[in-house]
Design goal:
This protein is mainly α and 212 residues long. Helices cover 81% and strands 0% of the residues. The chain folds into two domains: 34-140, Rna Polymerase Sigma Factor, Chain: A; 141-212, Orthogonal Bundle (Arc Repressor Mutant, subunit A).
């Protein structure tokens, strides 16, 4: 089949408009997210409960993921740090420039909460120094890199193990509820959760040791 050259548009001409539209849409979405972040922070500063609930729903899961990495899988430490982070947010969050600024602010507070709790543990139970307890590699890693490592660690799990971990830690379901959903016994959930924890710790430790 022959096609007249007059009917063919240059490749760049056919691709550029789509790229422009996609870029425009991305910028619009980013702008909307930044505006919402500013509104939420300002509303929390005014003491509006609905804004705080929105902040909690949007960032609780992500903060818990980060805290679990910072705490090297210590669930109690991670949950306490996240709870402390939202308490600080309710008390001090007033203004942010955008969504990235808001997340960075929350992540920094979470790191401070981890350190505070570790120091408190050291006073109460002679636990080692916070940096030694958490690990220098974790302290020095960026939040984004820690999230990437956790995503990779979760992806390396078997499907059922990953489902159990996500439902237990991030969806806050009990082992009994998970057992009912997966049609297995609570004892099996407990066993597989412990096995998944061990795999996650090994994956994270190995990854961080290779990067230091």
């Amino acid at each position: 089949m022959t096609v007249s050259i007059l009917t063919m548009r240059p490749l760049a001409e056919t691709l550029t408009p789509r790229a422009t539209v996609e870029t425009s849409n991305e910028r619009a979405a980013e702008s909307a997210a930044d505006a919402e972040a500013r509104q939420v922070a300002a509303a929390i500063g005014r003491g509006e409960n609905a804004a705080f609930e929105k902040l909690y729903e949007r960032y609780h899961r992500r903060l818990l993921r980060l805290a679990l990495m910072l705490a090297r899988g210590d669930e109690l430490l991670a949950h306490d740090a996240v709870q402390g982070t939202f308490i600080v947010a309710a008390q001090k969050l007033r203004h942010v420039d955008g969504e990235a600024h808001l997340w960075n602010w929350l992540a920094q507070v979470a790191r401070q909460q981890i350190t505070r709790i570790c120091r408190q543990r050291k006073r109460d139970t002679t636990v080692v120094d916070p940096e030694e307890f958490i690990g220098r590699a974790i302290v020095e890693e960026s939040d984004t890199r820690l999230e990437e490592i956790l995503d990779a660690a979760l992806a390396a799990l078997d499907l059922e193990e990953r489902q159990i971990v996500e439902r237990f830690y991030f969806d806050r379901l009990s082992q009994k509820e998970i057992a009912e959903q997966l049609n297995i016994t609570p004892k099996a959930v407990s066993s597989r959760l412990e096995r998944a924890r061990a795999k996650l710790r090994l994956f994270v430790s190995t990854t961080l040791s290779h990067e230091t």
